[in-house]
User: Fold this.
Amino acid sequence: MARGRDRGVKPFGHTAIAKFLDARIDEIKAFKTQREIAEEVGFNTPNMISMLKNGDSKIPLDKIALLARALDVDPGHLLRLGLEQYWTGLGDVIDEVFGHIASANEFELFLKKWRQVTENTDPRPTRSMKYEVDVTIEQIARSAGHSD
Assistant:
């Protein structure tokens, strides 16, 4: 009988941060290597970057800011994903404690325009508004290649 975890099973491969890191590292591989990322974050070996993106290891929370800078991503977004990796299923609690963290990209794509058109009135969502927003976001996701 095998001891330890099964070969090939990635204990954190299912987490949002592992999937995010894998996709982001793939996006920037033409101009930044995993070795360069590892050096910027302070890891001794690029293998640690592979372990994080493959889900073999949890993201060290003290490395979030450096990793965000190395990957040119929003540190608040990366922190939220990292916290969810440590406290699986507690996304609602994380939101309650830290507020609804919006990344700079989310702000630029959605909140900025919304606040402009509503003149910062924060209108109460109606059923119709929710439907229209859902449809629009699904269309955007499809055009960006992110539909399920």
